[in-house]
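Students often ask why we bother predicting the structure of a whole assembly rather than each chain alone. The short answer is interfaces. A chain on its own may look different once its partners are present, and contacts between molecules only exist in the joint model. In this exercise we take two input lines together and write out one structure for the complete complex. Read the inputs first and try to guess which parts will touch.
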Amino acid sequence: MSYNPFQVLDLKVPSNYHEDLTRYSRTQSVAGEKKNPLDNPFDRYVDLWMLGVCIGARERRTNELKGAASKTFITGVVLATDPDRIELLELLAIGYTGDPYIVAEPRKVIDLANGLAAVGVPMVIDMLKGGRGRPLWNLTEAVIDEFDRDLGEANPFPKVTAKKQ
Amino acid sequence: MDTKFPVGLRELFFTDGDRAQTWIEVGTQGVKRARVLNAIRSLLGLDLIEKAQDHVKETVKSFNRDLKSIGPDTEAGKVGDRLAQIEVEMAEADKSKGDAMAALSAIAEQIQDFENRIAEALRQGNREELERQVTAANNQLRVAERTEIQLEKQHSELFKDTSLALGLLAPHVLRARGLLGGLKERGTIPQKFLPILEEAVEEETCVCGTSLAKGTPARQHVCDLIEEHKKVDAIADRLTDLNVLSARFATAIEAHESSWPVRTRASFQLVSAAQETLRTAQERAKELERQLEVLPDTAVPDLTRAKKSAEEQQRVQIRAERDAEITIRNLDRERTLLTKKRDQLLRSEKKYARLRANLRAADDIYGVLALTFAAIQHGKMVQVSDEMNRLFLGMIVANTEQAQKAIIQRAEITQDYDIVVTGPQGRRLDPDRDLNGASRRAITLAFILALAKVSGIDAPNVIDTPLGMTSGIVRQSILRTAAENSAQLVLFLTPAEIRDVEDLLDEFAGEVWTMSNTAHYPMMLVNEPSADDLRVMLCTCSHRQFCEMCERTSDELNNRLVRRTA
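Now the answer. The structure tokens for the assembled complex follow.
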């Protein structure tokens, strides 16, 4: 069995964005019909959550949600399907806190990730809804912009224009 | 009409310009010869001689039968009976040959008609081919749809790819790498000093020889180190792993080509190309469907099948003609031999003297009639041939002054009733292959006019669309030649044919009328006809006028035409 210190810990999103997890991921089919990637860009809830964590980390902000303000959508067992994520969450926690030994306390790592997701997930939802294209293209454009922000004038790549539908 | 025209010549006085061309070029060599021969025979009007020949044949036949009655079991009787029978069989074979040739002529025109209709249908579009294209376009469309969906799904998979998180978390990952590197530098990881330190404390001597006796500061320092190492022991392996992993991630962060934005842009371009392909496929399928909807049911396959069937019939009739020809030759050979034998037998016995004299007289009469017929026929053929040549060279404006240089030097009818054209150095040109459309039309019209002229029949030539496929000076000279060499010429001309011959029409036309088809509104006619049904409307506009009834869409801008007011 692969290493997963987070398997019993809850992964959470702000309660008022929980519906969006369903809306923008393909985890659940609608009336037996498979969701299409254009409107449901994420394969699973955890993919959206992970992107939220990353965006929150870039913002260097966390939001500690308590009680009903957050909602668990799954436990950390899901992370075992992609070991890179477990390692990235640990490295993120080390880099973010400056404490290598935080990995000894998985709950703190996940609390940090949930706090970052609380900031990042709403931003991801805004990216999906923003623009005039289908969600997949809105998100593509917004995330590339996010990278371009780092590159500034030196960006050697052509700008992606989201498809207007 | 029957009193005015010989039946065989009737179609020559009423000529469809388009059909006139096929009249000379469609069919086998035998059919073409038969057409020319029949036309000349009809022109001769020598029915009386032909009937006389038939009477003589009948008489000879009865003489041969008489032989049998004089001596039924004699050899002469048997020969006579066979000769009479040969005449019957010969007539049947002649009829079969004639029927086959008539059928071949009709089939050849039928095939030409199918070819014209197929060509016309193909100009409008081949339904079968179009349906194939629609199917192919729909298949391409389905492939394009599947490709697009697949590429979109692949694109969405990029949002769970490690490279995305790695790119966005790069600052934190790199910082973590620095911190872990520090632990390594300090020897905190990997955990390898703890057993050595514990052993040194136990032995109260450091590996460097320093005393680690109880209460010494050195011992205290080593003990502190042991405590720190013990603290990280549980996570040391993990931190060691993370240190290695962070090095791998750091390398990945620096690898530009595999970074998430680069891969995403490449994916986006693939999706865009697939969408473009899909759009093109959709438009193509839609356009083909539209073409198919408006395509009239031209039934090219049906026409092709009908043509193939006609070609099969043609082969059957060609075989029938050849069989009849072979039968005729065999019968002719047998007749010659038996006639010789009969004559020998008749000479051998006196009782046949009278019959022999009768047969000789009949043979002489038949010979005279045949020679007379052939002489007249040949003479007329030469006249028609010369007249045709004169008219044809005039029509195509051949260079008669420098005849050596002319591409076409002569047209004539041969002894075998073939119409042939001769080029420089006596080279024979195939009218079907070596003459252009205008020259083929000209030679046919020249033959028809020559026949009419040599026949001496004073009747009008009525020709529909005589100037199609012609232009310029050839068009003018065809019209002039036809007008100057007809007793009366009635032409049906399209507006396109009138172009460039207006002056000649001024010169030769006694009466000019304009005929307009109500079906041509609104595509060609400007004004809505008063009649609702399909009909031809007649007005007195000349070739230089138009009126409300016959005005065509381009007439107003045509400076050769003027509006005629009632």
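Check your guess against this: Chain B has three domains: 7-123+304-510, 159-265, 511-566.
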